């Protein structure tokens, strides 16, 4: 059996582990388009901020691939010929496969606004190379505009601020971190960032980029900026899959075994459209732990197992300028909201028919593990118990049935794989 993996990110590392858990011998080749080895993408903002050194960036060190007998090919895949089962690389090299994994991740979205492609001051912060390039452009005292206040935009703003730049975030929506936070919690985070000195403008769009003169906003305002970071979202890298006829929607479509519409091709990580386990709706999740888990399960299945993947839960955590922000669940499910706040500690729960469907925790990391598992287990809890918990949230106030449920042993593991 010959295994080929396109992309050398988080899902690829998981896939190597998954394949090797079942098949110690067969050759594995990774096509590493970025040519930077396996690194932890979320660490790039810390690298830019000067808080991580190059040698601390590995997700899996080069020795890992060597030990696993993996050949890493520093090249880009330009075409998949699924009739002959070959991957054609930019260099002209052709790599044959029996089982192929698409682990090509996503890319930042660049909006079509005047000046955005013409000006060298406009950058993204998505790869390690982006961070290295930005490192050379950062000038303390100068102004940077960050377009977008999602997780990447907020972390980019933090890194530039920590490097001494003046930072303005422009967010099109009426609140920051719109996929993660509610309006109330977003206001608290906004106040926190503004108190630190980051300027935040919500409900506004950048409509033009004028190079060194800065940016223009929809309301006509002009902001001077020497650097513009585009962080308005990401999109799965679908072209290889679409060009060879695989079924795609927002992401590559996979079945519950992470197999694409071609039986010999699997896909995992940010490139796939999976299932939000809470809403049951299809979703592109783009989260690191899910990418690793999907890669691991796909790898096992490529080696002949039948591991099923039910989908993922939207959960995100970000630490920004001293504030710990964790949110999980679905903003789409309406329900009863429970709020608690004491100083800069804040907890918001949303329950629907007694079941927790969302939480937002600011500076409350101690309760988020149990709350995440309450969402996953969809345990029905009486309102009086939620009321008791929210009156002074802490581990000791969790409903007794939670403690009973976590005693369960692993035979309910939904990721269990059938024997080959
Ligand atoms: C700044 C930042 C902060 C983040 N913070 C968090 C966080 O706090 N929590 C969290 O859960 N997630 C976070 N993420 C998201 C997380 O990094 C991704 O979910 C994860 O990296 C996805 O893994 P992946 O393997 O699917 O894709 P990637 O890690 O992106 O790897 C895909 C690789 O495939 C390569 N590739 C693409 N096309 C080809 C081709 N044709 N040939 C060869 N190679 C190709 C790409 O260049 C890339 O190197 C963050 C991302 C960024 C950018």
Describe, in plain words, how this protein is organized in 3D.
The structure is a single chain. The protein has 420 residues and is of the alpha/beta class. The protein folds into 3 domains: 157 residues, FAD/NAD(P)-binding domain (3-Layer(bba) Sandwich), CATH 3.50.50; 111 residues, FAD/NAD(P)-binding domain, CATH 3.50.50; 74 residues, 2-Layer Sandwich (Enolase-like, domain 1). Strands 5-2-1-9-21 form a 5-stranded parallel beta sheet. The radius of gyration is 23 Å and the shape is globular. The site of flavin-adenine dinucleotide (FAD) has 34 residues, from helix 1, helix 2, helix 5 and helix 8.
Which keywords apply here?
alpha/beta; FAD/NAD(P)-binding domain; Enolase-like, domain 1; five-stranded parallel beta sheet; 11 helices
How confident is the prediction overall: mean pLDDT?
94
> What radius of gyration results from the CA coordinates?
23 Å
**Strand content of the residues, in percent?**
25-35%
Q: What is the overall number of helices?
A: 11
**Count of spatially separate domains:** 3
